[in-house]
Amino acid sequence: MSADFREKQLIQRAKNGDENSFESLILGCQSKAYNIALRYLKNEEDAMDALQESFIKIFRHLKSFKEDSRFDTWVYRIVVNTCNDMLRKNSNQKITDSIFKTEDEKETILEIPDTTGSPEEVFEKQEKTDHIISCLDRLNQEQKEIIILRDIHGFSYEEISEILSCSIGTVKSRINRSRLKLREILLEQN
Length: 190
Fold this sequence. Notes:
The protein is mostly helical and about 190 residues long. The protein has 2 domains: about 1-95, Rna Polymerase Sigma Factor, Chain: A; about 100-190, Winged helix-like DNA-binding domain superfamily/Winged helix DNA-binding domain (Arc Repressor Mutant, subunit A, Orthogonal Bundle), CATH 1.10.10. About 70% of the residues lie in helices and about 0% in strands. It contains 8 helices and no strands. The radius of gyration is 18 Å and the shape is elongated.
């Protein structure tokens, strides 16, 4: 039985009120959805709130899911929209932590490979990572959003197009503009 067929069965059962099927669908994309929310909102509590709000929206609107995209793509679109709504509501509060750092500030999502060099090399690498993160924080929300989805989470152009409800051409041009802006900021800092 293919994964797509199984997903379609779960969706149909969930649309008919089967809570176990709905739970199975959500469990399949919960971790990535949480990571997206965390990168957007910069703290675990807000990310959990966004996730919970998103899952409520998904449950309420599941019957309107047309199945013309993958279920997880639809979920990520709802999570992104919920995060953007929360950011708009809280726009008067300035957040200073990087969207790319975890709670303990030791690990970044940029996943720079560890070659286990000398302490000086490790320190220098951390400095570079911190520099890149600080440059990412200087991008506007649209630019951060596209970098998070494409370069951090690795979504395809098609998936980003569905998540952001825009054309693939728009996705490509936003990625290009965002990368150029990031490069400009990086060069300006050196």
